[in-house]
Amino acid sequence: MALLNEDISIFNHTLNIDLFKRNDTLWKGILENVCEHFLRFFFKEADSLFSMEKGFQFLDKELDQLFPAEDIAAPKFVDKLIKVVAKSGKEEWILIHVEVQGYKDDDFGKRMFTYFYRILDKYNKPVTAIAIFTDNDRKFHPAFYQYEYLGTKATFNFKTYKILDQEEEVLSEDENPFSIVVLTVLLALKKKKITDEKLYDLKYSLAKNLLTKKN
């Protein structure tokens, strides 16, 4: 129950902040406190892929060592490196690189590729990458990076999720608590005022869904 209360507290704080989509502290708190829901939201087969009961490890210090602040030209938003145990019966683990992007960056694909190969080189473990776009530019949606020079070519594709392209009704009906986070950001991007009644409904849905998942 303590974890449930912490989850709800994090989301309640989130739902009361208009600039949530630009708040890296809140995003990091969300990703860490409800990582299980986050994984199920983006990987529908999560329960057959990951050993949720073994928990997660957030490699923030390791990520900072791989990418010192002076090496990053663009303004940094939110990035997380999550270590999860695979449900394959083998002693192995999977690294999930999550990048939350709230501004247009012409070099974003290259940055994702740089993160990928440095993480792969460092750990030599399976890596998947997710980019969540929280900006309000519909035309900005990079999903790959391509390099080509004198016959040498490399193409890197990564998983993406553009919040602005989502549908309010679909998110409202989704039983995964993480969908409420996405819905809140979507409403903020559309500059829709969240009434007290709507805010109550969102919090009620969150609490109900969290209770269902915990039981």
Describe it:
By secondary structure, the protein is an alpha/beta fold. The chain has one domain. It contains 9 helices and 7 strands, in the order ααααβαββαββββααα. The strands form 2 sheets. Strands 1-2-3-4-7 form a 5-stranded mixed beta sheet. A two-stranded antiparallel sheet has the order 5-6. β3, α6 and β4 form a beta-alpha-beta unit. α1 packs antiparallel against α2 and α1 runs antiparallel to α9. It is globular.
Largest sheet, described in full?
Answer: 5 strands, mixed
Rounded to an integer in angstroms, the radius of gyration calculated over CA atoms is: 18 Å
Rough outline: globular
The number of distinct helices, counting runs of at least 4 residues, comes to 9
The average pLDDT is 78
Give a count of the beta strands, DSSP E runs of length 2 or more. Answer: 7
Helix content: 40-55%
SSE string, helices as H and strands as E: HHHHEHEEHEEEEHHH
Unreliable runs: 1-22
Q: How many discrete structural domains?
A: 1
Q: What is the SS-derived class?
A: alpha/beta
Query: Strand order within the widest sheet?
Result: 1-2-3-4-7
For the record, give the distance between the C-alpha atoms at the N and C termini, rounded to a whole number.
10 Å
Strand content: 15-25%
Write the layout of secondary structure elements.
Elements: H1 2-15, H2 24-33, H3 35-42, H4 46-49, E1 56-58, H5 60-66, E2 78-85, E3 93-101, H6 108-123, E4 127-133, E5 144-149, E6 152-157, E7 159-162, H7 168-173, H8 178-189, H9 196-214
Helix pairs in contact: 1-2, 1-9
